[in-house]
Each structure stands twice: as C-alpha cells, then as structure tokens.
UniProtKB/TrEMBL annotation:
GO terms for molecular function: DNA binding; DNA topoisomerase type I (single strand cut, ATP-independent) activity. It catalyses: ATP-independent breakage of single-stranded DNA, followed by passage and rejoining. This is DNA topoisomerase. SMART domains: TOP1Ac, TOP1Bc. Residues 166-634 form the Topo IA-type catalytic domain. Gene3D superfamilies: 3.40.50.140, Topoisomerase I, domain 2, Topoisomerase I, domain 3, Topoisomerase I, domain 4. It comes from Pseudomonas amygdali pv. ulmi. Its EC number is 5.6.2.1. PROSITE patterns: TOPO_IA_2. Belongs to the type IA topoisomerase family. It holds the Pfam family Toprim_Crpt. It is an enzyme of class 5 (isomerase). GO terms for biological process: DNA recombination; DNA repair; DNA topological change.
Length: 844
C-alpha cells in the first residue's frame, strides 16, 4: 500500500475537508500532525521556513547592538546573497513540527500537496520540500470548496506538482520573495540610516508594494493641501408644464459662453444673475425630449477585492476583517467557496449546480424566500463563461468568483458573528443576482429653452427591478436614489417637443470647488489593483491595465493593516474613514528617488514576475535586474536630501506622570519611561496640536464642540480633562453638577419606538445611527433624508399610512438648493421615494 503524506497549511483543511473523504478515524495525533487510515497528515500553520535575516550574510566582525544584533552600517549595503547563498531558516516556534515533517518525508512514498490554489500556497509547501531536498513524487490537490462531493471530485483529479502551472507559481513566489527581501532590507536600512544622519529618528521602511502606494497617497495629500478653491454658481429653474408635475432643470451653458471656469462652471456672478433675471416668470418650450428604454445586467459575483470594498462601504469593515470573516465562512462553516480569489467569473459547470446551491442558501437564510420569485435558476448571466476562467495558456484556472457552497450539515447563522453574517449576505446576494432578469428602466431627458437659455432635466423611471430586487439596497445617499449627475432621480412629466413650460422661479446656489477626496481603505485597495490609473505614460498605462496591479488578493489587506500599524497612514482631520500620510511617511517619500516610488516601476516589476512564472524570463535574469536596481537605490539613499522633522505636538513637554521623554506616535503621545499614553482622538474628535499641548501642560483643553458620547447617540460640548497618571481624558462641563454619563448618552431628539412597527412584518423597529431597522425582516428606514431629519409624527405617518404630508427642507446633493416633497413608502421594493404633487394639489 502506498504510504501517503498530506501537507496542508491549516488544520481545518483536513478536519473539516479532506477527512470527510478518507475512511477511518484518527489513530495518532500530535501538535501539528495526525495519522488516519494508514496515512499521515501534517499542517504547517503558515510558513514553516523564512528567509534568513541580513545578519546571516554579514561578516562576523560587524559590531553588535545591546540586543545582540549586528549594527546597521551604510558601508555594509547593499546586502546581496549570491545566487547559491540564499538561505531558508526553520521557524524556531515550529521546531517539533518541522522535526516530525522531516521524519514523515523519509517515511512516505508520495506527498499530496494541499497548499492554497495560488502562488503563496504553492510556495508554502514547496519550500518545505526543497529545504529537505525531497525527491519523491509530489501530487497537487486543488480544493476550492469544502463540500464533501467537491472534495471527492478534487481527489479524483489529483495532478502532478511538476505541471507548468504549479512550477510557474513557485517561480513567481520565489522571485517575489527574494526581490521583496532585497528591496525591503536594503532600502529600509539605507533610508533609515540617511534619516539618522539628518536627525530623524524612527524606521523609514521601503517596500515593493507599500512604497508606490504611499507615493500615490502622498501625491493625493499634496493636491488636497495645495488646492485653492473658488466659488461658482449653480443655476436651477423650477418649471411648471401645462399638464403634469412641476420639475427642476439645470442651466446648460453654450459652447461659447463667457464667465465659465475650465470645467464649465459659471463663476461670473453677473452672468449668473443676468440669466436668473431674464428667465424668471417667463414661458419657455421643450426643445428636446428623449425617452429611451435602458437595461443593466447584474454585477458579476465577487472576488476578494470587491468583497473587501463592499464590506468597507456598507459596514466600515477593514480589508483584513472581511478577509478573516470570509476565511471562517470557507474553512469552518463550509458555506462559501475559496475566498482568496481575484476572479469574478464562474465556469459553465457551476450553472449545473445552481438549483441545489440556491436551495441551500434559502435553507440557511429562509428570510430571503421573499425574493425567490425574482430568481430563475435556468437563467444564465454573463458570469458563467469558461473562457474567463482559463489561464493565458488555456488551462482551467483553479480560481473563480466567490459563491455560496452547500454545507454537509445544517448551519445556524445565529451562531456566527454579525460580521460573518454580513459578509455571507454580500456573497449570496451577488450570486443570486446571476439568476434574476436585467434591471430595466426608462430614462427621460428634457431640454427646455427660455429666453435663449437652455436648461436640462433628467429623470429615471424603473420598469422592472430585476436583479435589484435581490440586493434590496438601501439608497446610496440619505435614502434617496440619485442620477449620474448626483441629483435626485425624479419622475419627469410626459412632454413633447414644443410644449410650453412656465418658469416659476430661478435660484442661484453659491458653491465652492472641492479638492479630490482623501484615500480610505477602499481607495487603497482599488489603487493597488488598478495601478495603471496612476501612471502618466499612456503606453505604459495601457500595458499595466492588462495586468493585476501590485500586491496579491492574499496580501493587500495585510499591507494596508501594516502601514496603519507603522503609522505611515494616520487618520485625516475630517472623516473617520479617511486616511492621510504621516509626517514621517512624507519625509520618506519626498526623499526617495522617483524610480523607487514610481507606480510604473512597481507595475513593471509585477509584470516581470509574471514573465518569470510563464518562463519568458528566467529567474537568473530577473534577479540580476533586481540586484542592479537595489544597488542604485542604496547609492541614491546615501545622498538623499532629507529634512529633520520638527518636534511633533507634545514631544518637547515632559511626561505629566514621571517627567520622562514623550514621543509622538502619530495617533498617540506616549512616554518612553512609563505607561502614560494620550490618544489624539477623544470622544470622536481628533485633537489639534494646541489641544494636545494644553492637556499635557495645563491638564485641560478649551471648550470643544461636537464631542460624541460612547453610545454615539448625541453630540455635546465640553472641556477635556487629563488624568496625569494614565493619559486618559474625560469631559468637564461648564454647568456645575452636570452628569458626565447623562450628558453623553441622552439624545437631543429621541425616537419613540413604542409606536413604530415594521410595515412589513410588524416587529418593533430598532434605532441604529440614522436608521430604524427591523431585527426580523431587515427592513431599513433612514430617519434623515438629504439633510432633513424626520420627527416622530412624520416617521409614524410614513410607516402606517405610507405617505407623509408635503415636507420642506430637503437639500439636493452638492448643495444644489433645497426643495419640498412628500415621502412615499413603495411597498413593492420597501424603499422611500419622493413624490412631487402637482402645483396647487396640496395648497401650495
């Protein structure tokens, strides 16, 4: 009988996967291995071997630090191991497991390689086999679904680990690992040592992915901080047709119009005022009426990148939090396919399983039975395409979009975390949408001429919800659907060319131009995947667009998390989700040569790695180029122009607790000699330099506005007081005897829940931020729409009667002016819509 050793990354791959297809029970077990049915199984829990550190390659006469490490010296750089000198060292924390692996490799006849279906998973097992110079047969097992039937199918299709696809993965991973080591170890040491020469303390890290990403963010920060806003006017008319509801239209300038900026916005106040005066009270006519029927196909199933972006947009989850939840759904609950994929398409064979998968989803989530009428498992979306799940050489790729799988035993989502439930919900809705019809709608565009001026209005009327009924999405902005122009999507009257319209009013709304937005987690993920957008050269941009950016599906989340931890990215002054580069990061990026931080260079290296994988470029050729590049980086670093950073807020003030040295860590000021820590964000407010200094010197700040209590139910104003021992802060209220806890938790306007029942299932609605949510059927109602908060009576009318009275005070996005309308609850899709009554219908 053949003696088989199975090598996996995680124990769950075996206990919750492979064991279901291997007869027998566990006969022997240790910390990281087990025997079952005469076969041995071992799991590595990540990399069991790691690249040797620079100290391994430096001569023994290099002086040692107090920590017994060799000191960093510019004269030792670059550190470049020879082609045959690269060393892998066993992880000392896995000594017993590695010893057992050595024993089992000698015992077995064949290894079954269970690494994940990507470059990282390939290298994780391959490097262990190479370390022990294993020469016996190795077979590759690819598993993307823990369903027992799927596992048996995979075991019936075991492949040779020497196939080009797997050797290509190994070449890619080895080249990337060594290039990252060369650039990271040498670049970081060179820039850090140069920083010390000019008086800058701290580590200045350089990396093949994080450095170009940091450069992109730094340039965005520069644009924002150098941005000079200017005023402009938005000219909007309220029009009244002979028949049909009133509607708004926006002024459209002529091609030769004076008084515009380069983006076509009117900046000349006299021009805007003249238009308003000439058209107000006048009668115009419809010059163009375009009505077209349009449709949108369902979005593709999710890859990890899109899943992470959805998780951040909807729930504020970090990329790593989404990755961890998805991995749990795959590994432990077995309700989802392999998540670390960058592919969004599915094989056509997946469509054959649709009925069974849909049934399993509805069994796990019976609350979704209400959307079953919108699903037809015989429909086949564009996602099912064999050509899209093949490698460039025509081989089937083991990766496909993330979709639900059929668990072997019934699972109870109530036992999952809320994050796991939400991530699962994102995946299943994206999958179910593939079996729904297209979203169909009617798009209407009206052009009106008044006194020689042209005005445009756009409206959208849903005809068939199709896949949108699957998503049941909350509207994207304060509960209101928007057009592509960021205007409320209104139903326009049915007019024909030549029809008359009266201009009831013309409003001028003064606005200021705004800078581009700061980066957040979503934008960082998108920047890594779509690197070409930040490349200037058009030819190179086109070339990079065909690639997959920088980083990998498995590593991008960790890169962002690490950069936050190192405080290269810190919270921006406005917007908790928004990030900006720290002073330390800016000094580093500004000093680095363009060749190191240029996104085009990073993209070029990524493409070179792909060439190594395909065999178009040899490993030796790639490493020779990488070594030349690193030598250039070190030489440039030696003479890089850097400035010593000015002391950060608090650094020149002694510790209030022990008088020791305070160090600014970006998000906090901490003492180097005691446990004093002052966080720079308190009660939802980012503290400025003067407030930090006041706390450290005086123990108290000025009166601060818009502080938020721990329960986040209301905002309040208070001074902050410092605990000089710990660094913790607490609010001080100017009114004597004010209760801290009461002031922080009592809302200004409390919603009376007793009278607010879910219109769908009659359960009691629960408040969550600016929404009321049903814990039973997940109905959601925004309590604030377009800047207008709804009071108890208005909410009750909307929920019980389905419509409110005409309400005023709604503000169009981008400050396009206020408007009035009724709110109506659409009981077909359970969304709130605007209703604009005819003039005079409600006494207006």
């Amino acid at each position: 009988m053949e003696k088989v050793l199975w090598i996996a990354e995680k124990e769950s791959q075996l206990s919750q996967g492979i064991y279901s297809a291997i007869p027998g029970s566990t006969e022997d077990q240790g910390p990281g291995w087990a025997r079952r049915g005469g076969q041995w199984f071992i799991w590595l829990d990540g990399h069991a071997f790691q690249q040797a550190p620079p100290d391994h390659y430096l001569p023994d006469d290099v002086p040692l630090t107090a920590g017994n490490k060799k000191v960093w010296r510019m004269s030792d750089l670059p550190i470049i191991p020879g082609a045959r000198a690269w060393k892998l060292l066993p992880d000392p924390r896995k000594k017993a497991r590695i010893a057992k692996l050595k024993e089992l490799l000698q015992w077995c006849d064949v290894v079954h390689h269970l690494g994940d279906s990507d470059e990282e998973g390939q290298c994780l097992v391959d490097e262990a086999l190479e370390y022990f110079q294993f020469k016996k047969p190795v077979r590759r097992v690819l598993i993307n679904d823990y369903n027992a039937t799927k596992i048996k199918e995979s075991l019936a299709n075991i492949r040779d680990n020497a196939e080009p696809q797997f050797t290509g993965w190994r070449r890619w991973g080895l080249a990337r690992s060594r290039y990252d080591w060369l650039l990271g170890m040498n670049g970081t040491r060179a820039m850090t040592l140069r920083g010390r020469e000019v008086g800058q303390q701290g580590l200045l890290p350089v990396g093949s992915v994080q450095t170009p990403l940091l450069y992109i963010a730094r340039e965005r920060d520069r644009l924002i901080e150098e941005f000079k806003p200017h005023a402009y006017h938005v000219v909007t008319v309220q029009l009244h047709p002979v028949e049909g509801p009133d509607f708004q239209a926006r002024w459209k300038p002529r091609p030769d119009q004076d008084g515009l900026d380069e983006d076509g916005r009117v900046v000349d106040t006299q021009v805007a005022s003249s238009i308003a005066e000439r058209v107000k009270g006048r009668t115009g006519s419809v010059t163009q009426c375009d009505i077209s029927k349009k449709s949108k196909k369902p979005p593709l199933p999710l890859s990890m990148n899109e899943l992470q972006m959805e998780g951040f947009s909807r729930y504020d989850y970090s990329a790593q939090e989404v990755m961890d939840a998805a991995q749990k759904l795959y590994d432990t609950y077995k309700v989802m396919t392999y998540p670390r994929t960058d592919v969004r398409y599915l094989s056509e064979a997946h469509h054959d399983e649709a009925a069974a998968v849909i049934a399993a989803v509805l069994q796990i989530r019976p609350d979704l039975i209400q959307i079953a009428d919108h699903i037809d498992h015989t429909l086949k979306s564009e996602a099912f395409n064999d050509a899209k799940v093949r490698t460039p050489t025509g081989e089937p790729t083991p990766h496909h979009g993330i979709v639900p799988s059929i668990p072997e035993k019934m699972v109870n989502p109530a036992e999952w975390t809320e994050r796991e439930r939400n991530v699962y919900d994102l995946v299943i809705r994206a999958y179910l949408a593939q079996f729904a019809s297209d979203y169909k709608y009617q798009s209407t565009t009206l052009q009106v001429a008044i006194e020689g001026e042209s005005f445009t209005a756009t409206g959208t009327t849903p005809v068939q919800l199709g896949w949108k009924a699957i998503y049941q999405e909350p509207p994207p902005l304060d509960g209101v659907d928007l057009t592509e122009d960021n205007l409320p999507s209104l139903t326009l009257p049915a007019l024909n060319e030549g029809n008359s319209v009266a201009c009831l009013s013309c409003s001028l709304v003064d606005q200021m131009t705004t800078p581009p937005p700061r980066f957040d987690d979503n934008m960082l993920l998108d920047a890594m995947k779509n690197l070409h957008r930040y490349v200037v050269d058009p030819e190179l941009r086109k070339l990079l667009k065909e690639g997959e950016g920088i980083g990998t599906t498995s590593t991008r989340a960790g890169i962002i998390a690490d950069m936050k931890k190192r405080e290269l990215f810190v919270s921006a002054p406005k917007g908790k989700k928004k990030l900006m580069t720290s002073a330390q990061a800016r000094n580093l990026i500004d000093a680095l040569p363009m060749k190191v931080k240029d996104p085009a260079q990073a993209g070029h290296f990524k493409q070179s790695l792909d060439q190594v994988a395909s065999g178009a470029l040899t490993h030796t050729e790639f490493m020779e180029y990488a070594e030349r590049f690193v030598r250039e980086v070190v030489e440039v670093a030696k003479v890089a122009e850097m400035e010593a950073l000015p002391p950060a807020p608090g650094e020149q003030i002694p510790c209030p607790n022990c008088s020791g040295e305070l160090q600014n860590k970006g998000k906090r000021t901490a003492c180097s000699q005691c446990k004093f820590v002052l966080w720079h964000e308190a009660f939802g407010k980012l503290l400025g330099a003067k407030d930090i200094e006041a706390l450290l010197k005086k123990g108290e700040t000025r009166l601060l506005q818009n502080l938020v209590g721990h329960e986040k139910k209301t905002k309040f104003s208070a001074r902050l007081s410092l605990d000089r021992t710990t660094g913790k802060t607490k609010p001080l209220f100017d009114k004597p005897g004010a209760s801290t806890s009461k002031a922080m938790t009592t809302p200004k306007e409390k919603i009376t829940l007793a009278s607010l029942n879910c219109p769908r299932c009659s359960a009691i609605l629960e408040p969550s931020g600016k929404t009321l949510e049903c814990p039973s059927c997940k109905f959601k109602l925004f309590s604030e729409l377009l800047g207008r908060a709804l009071n108890d009576a208005e909410l009750k009318a909307l929920l019980t009667e389905g419509v409110t009275e005409k309400l005023s005070g709604f503000v169009s996005p981008k400050k396009n002016g206020s408007f009035s309308a009724k709110l109506k609850l659409n009981r077909e899709v359970w969304k709130v819509e605007f209703e604009f009554p005819k003039k005079g219908a409600d006494g207006a």
